[in-house]
Amino acid sequence: MSEPYAVEAMPRSVSVARICMGVQAVMGMVGLFLLFVLLGSVPLSTMVSAAGGAVLVALAVPLLTILLIGFLALRIPTRRSWVRACGLVVELLVTLLGLWQLLGSVSLGNVLGVLLAGVAFGQLCRSSSASWFDR
């Protein structure tokens, strides 16, 4: 008969990073949804102009970033090393961008975004996270 094998539980640091990334993705999607609702109240003739097209293209970058964070948060249980590497890069870039934005103006959304990204990055940097991903 085959013997049961032990499944290594996800360390707390990885769980915290995953929760932070999930909250980031949900908050980002809500923010973009509200922005699209706001843009929906703009007359159609304004949106057809070149400036309206540029706004929609500019919104594609945050949307892709949010979707990438959500995708990585869902892929964390697979324990693939590329998921941790991509998570580290994305969270570092989001943290640096948030800190740059905080130099201009301080708002609750900016502070919360920087804190979530910083915590996720810090937790993914821990040795327990590294050893869990590098099975």
Describe the structure.
The protein is mostly helical. The chain is about 80% helix and about 0% strand. It contains six helices and no strands. The protein has helices at about 10-40, 45-50, 50-75, 80-105, 110-125, 125-135. Helix 1 packs antiparallel against helix 3 (about 50-75) and helix 4 packs antiparallel against helix 5 (about 110-125). The longest helix has 29 residues, at about 10-40. The radius of gyration is 18 Å and the shape is elongated. About 20% of the residues are buried.
Number of strands: 0
Percent of residues in helices: over 70%
Number of helices: 6
Give the distance, in angstroms, between the N- and C-terminal Cα atoms: 26 Å
Record the SSE blueprint:
Layout: H1 12-40, H2 44-48, H3 50-75, H4 81-104, H5 108-125, H6 127-133
Summarize the structure.
The chain is an all-alpha fold and 135 residues long.
Attribute tags:
single chain; 135 residues; mainly alpha; 81% helix; elongated
